């Protein structure tokens, strides 16, 4: 799986993780139609194939994804990082609201501990900052949980560079999860700050939600053909070459697609490949759907 990167210094994680959003029903709501068996098998396959970070969240399902992780992988093998998220309450398919009051975050963390069957969460990420609650109060609640031994490392999801800098003045931040991929680099300034401070960056939507089409898709397909790879593999390989702090966590419900994603870690893009792919950046233009 290639070079490992530290998350808050320890534990370390391989360069490709596995995201669990695809293991629940549409809109992150309810169970999948095929039952828990295939998802449990897929999680075990991911770890058997060398994945060392599982990225989940309490609102995937809700609750279902965390329960699947525990069912498949507990007791957790040494070196496996379980990352989860709290601070968002899901009320229906693609329906959710932010809930960042300290009492909410404490209750969510305790519930995740129970579902994941662990005494300490390796990485607990604030799924969204709550604009109605002072940042210091939200991070203070997580820091108290950390001091109590219930969280090892604290992370943030979907933040600006300014928010990340302010958060790091309050408490150490081990990771950031922002949308970032070959065709969407709006979080470039966040990535730069992560590089400066040694913060892991877990890009969500690393494959661009199927956006590799049109002119961009033609370029990616050409690079893929040179390597005997798929466009999706090239998109993941670009992330791995783009920055040493990037740790993509692509999700899937397909064993074949899992294997395809993990094989991207073995691709060696050339300087010419990177130059062609870098030139696809169009941060101020609409992206193709």
Q: What key attributes describe this structure?
A:
single chain; disordered C terminus; 289 residues; 10 helices
Molecular structure report:
This protein is α/β, with parallel strands linked by helices and 289 residues long. The chain has one domain: NADP-dependent oxidoreductase domain (TIM Barrel, Alpha-Beta Barrel). It is 39% helix and 15% strand. It contains ten helices and eleven strands. The strands form three sheets. A seven-stranded parallel β-sheet has the order 3-4-5-8-9-10-11, with helices on one face. The chain has a two-stranded antiparallel ribbon with strand order 1-2. It has a two-stranded antiparallel sheet with strand order 6-7. Helix 1 (36-48) crosses helix 2, helix 3 (102-116) runs parallel beside helix 4 and helix 5 (161-170) runs parallel beside helix 6. The protein starts with a strand and ends in an 11-residue tail after the last helix. Residues 283-289 have low confidence and may be disordered.
């Amino acid at each position: 799986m290639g070079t490992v990167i530290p998350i808050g210094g320890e534990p370390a994680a391989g360069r490709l993780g596995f995201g669990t959003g695809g293991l629940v029903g549409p809109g992150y709501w309810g169970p999948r139609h095929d039952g828990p068996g295939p998802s449990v098998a897929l999680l075990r396959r991911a770890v058997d194939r060398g994945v060392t970070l599982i990225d989940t969240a309490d609102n995937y399902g809700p609750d279902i994804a965390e329960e699947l992780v525990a069912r498949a992988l507990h007791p957790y093998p040494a070196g496996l990082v379980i990352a989860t998220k709290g601070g968002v309450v899901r009320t229906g398919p693609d329906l959710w609201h932010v809930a960042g009051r300290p009492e909410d975050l404490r209750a969510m963390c305790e519930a995740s501990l129970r579902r994941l069957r662990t005494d300490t969460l390796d990485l607990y990420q604030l799924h969204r900052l709550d604009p109605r609650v002072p940042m210091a109060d939200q991070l203070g609640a997580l820091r108290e949980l950390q001091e109590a031994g219930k969280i090892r490392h604290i992370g943030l999801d979907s933040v600006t560079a300014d928010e990340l800098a302010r958060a790091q003045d309050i408490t150490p931040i081990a990771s950031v999860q922002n949308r970032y991929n070959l065709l969407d680099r709006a979080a470039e300034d966040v990535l730069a700050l992560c590089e400066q401070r040694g913060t892991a960056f877990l890009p969500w939507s690393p494959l661009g939600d199927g956006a590799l089409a049109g002119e961009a898709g033609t370029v990616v397909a050409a690079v893929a053909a040179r390597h005997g790879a798929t466009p999706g593999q090239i998109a993941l390989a670009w992330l791995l070459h783009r920055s040493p702090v990037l740790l993509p966590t692509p999700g899937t419900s397909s064993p074949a697609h899992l294997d395809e994603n993990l094989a991207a870690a073995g691709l060696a893009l050339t300087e010419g490949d990177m130059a062609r792919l870098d030139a696809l950046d169009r941060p101020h233009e609409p992206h193709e759907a």
